[in-house]
Structure formats: structure tokens, C-alpha cells
Amino acid sequence: MARQSGLIKLKGTLDNVNFYKSKDGNLARMKTSVDAKRIANDPAFVRTRENGAEFGSSAKAGKLVRSSLRPLMQTASDGAVTSRMTKVMTMVKNYDVTSERGGRNVASGIADPAAKELLKGFNFNIRSALGSVFYKPYTVDVNTGTITINQLVPINDVNFPLGATHVTLKSAWTKVDFSTGVTDTQISPESNLLIDSTSSDVTLTPPQAPTGTGTNIFVLCLEFYQEVNGMQYSLKNGAYNVLSIVEIN
Fold first, then answer.
1. Structural domain tally of the chain?
2. Residue 13's pLDDT is what?
3. Which of 12, 52, 115, 123, by CA, is between 20 and 30 Å from 216?
4. How far is the C-alpha of 178 from the C-alpha of 13, rounded, in Å?
């Protein structure tokens, strides 16, 4: 893959070179001479097919998690979250030590505690990671889904963006069955705080435990607002908002 230079940027194919535009700029790459039918049937490409099958499975697992948290991601995510999540799920898949090559999957790999640690701490909005925004210790009760934050002083414990007057905290407990594709998500009521020196004990509890079986994922979300004439407005379409996996079991 090469980067195009010069004033005129090309698009399309010329002499077996594909010219195209991506988020990384105007690029060029050689057109492959191997067609899809050969890759799907030729024994020489068996490793390629195995890699493709496992990559597709990892991407599907990542989509399950993202879909289960879509209500929160709508205000706290970045444009590369899909690829970043797929990358983590690919590493989780590698912990599957029972399936044959080409059939390794997240549903089996996630059973390993080390695989769960790969997901813990994942930030859905890389522009606003939890560790760089929220400094107060918290606890997660995996039996109730409750996240407890004691003596939170927003002006000291939150790195808030310029112009923000309020911060809203909420949590979610989602259960994801990577084998069946079934998910259930329970979102806590919001706690909306003025960004000042007032100390508050914040308790975020989902209305009930999610149903079904699978992997339990607990997330914490922070959203920033500016109050104008008694109304609160989200800052810059969620660019500063936080959504992070804080526990998984």
C-alpha cells in the first residue's frame, strides 16, 4: 500500500494498480490476480480460508457487543470502534484451545480469564478514554451490576471539557451469549451532577439482572452537557463522552 502524492489524486484502476481514498488519505495498491473463486476452492489457499473464517467470527462477536450497547454508543464512540473491537476479539479467539484451526471462536476463548482481561478496560470512544477523564475509584458488584462511587467531587475528580457545566453518569450490565448471538442489556438510571465542589455518593444500579446465559459485561458511561437558560445541551455531539468496559465475568 502506497500513498498518492501530487496535486491530482486518482480513483479507479490503472495498469493493475488500484487508486482509492480512505480515512488515511489517498492510497494505491496492486490489484490482486487471484479471484475469489480460486481462494474459495484451491487447496493452496486453505490457510487463507481458515484465517478468513476466524476473522469473520471475531467480527461477528464484536458486533454482538456493540449492538448490545448501541443506546450508549450513540453518544460515546469513535469512527474506528468497529475495527478496534474486532482486533480485541481476534485476540480473545486465540484463547480457544479446543477448536481446530479455522474454527477457533470467541465463544470458546472468552472462557479463559486472560481473554476476559483483554476486553476489560476497552474504551468505545478512543478520543475520551475513562482513565484520562475520570479519576475517582469505584466498585462494581457483579451480583447486582451496581457501580458505586463514593464522595465524588466533579470539579476535582472529572477532567471535564471547556464549557461543560454538568456531567451525567450511568452504567449498563449486558449479558452476551457468543454461541447463540443472544444478548440482553439493562441500563441504570442517570445521575446528573453539576460540575462544582459538591461531594456526592453516586450509586448506579440497573433495574434488573439481564436474562439468559453468557458473558457478563459491565460498562460505565459519562456524558458532558452545557446548561443554557435552564436547558442542558450535549457538547460537540459526544466527542468528549466516555464509555468503557469496567468489569467482565
1. 2
2. 66
3. 52
4. 40
- Residue 26 forms part of a structural domain: no
User: Residue 200's domain is classified under what CATH number?
Assistant: 2.60.40
Q: What is the four-CA torsion angle of 116, 215, 126, 24, rounded to 10 degrees?
A: 90
In three-state form (DSSP H/G/I as H, E/B as E, the rest C), the secondary structure along 177-221 is ECCCCEEEEEECCCEEEECCCCCEEEEECCCCCCCCCCEEEEEEE
193 and 242 co-located in one domain: yes
Amino acid at 70: R
Residues 64 and 145 in one domain: no
pLDDT tens-digit readout, 32-79 = 555 666 655 666 665 666 666 778 889 999 999 999 999 999 999 999
Residue matched to cell numbers 450497547: 69
pLDDT above 80 (res 152): yes
* pLDDT at 16 (0 to 100): 55
Domain assignment of residue 107, given as a range: 36-117
φ/ψ of 93, rounded to 5, equals: -55, -30
161 and 221 together in one domain = yes
For residue 188, report the phi and psi dihedrals to the nearest 5 degrees: -75, 160
pLDDT confidence tier of residue 99, bands split at 50, 70 and 90: confident
Q: Tell me, yes or no, whether 112 and 138 share the same domain.
A: no
For 114, other C-beta atoms within 10 Å of its C-beta total: 10
For the stretch 181-227, pLDDT in tens is: 999 999 999 999 999 999 999 999 999 999 999 999 999 999 999 99
Residues 151, 95 share a domain: no
Pairwise CA distance, residues 242 & 82, whole Å? 16
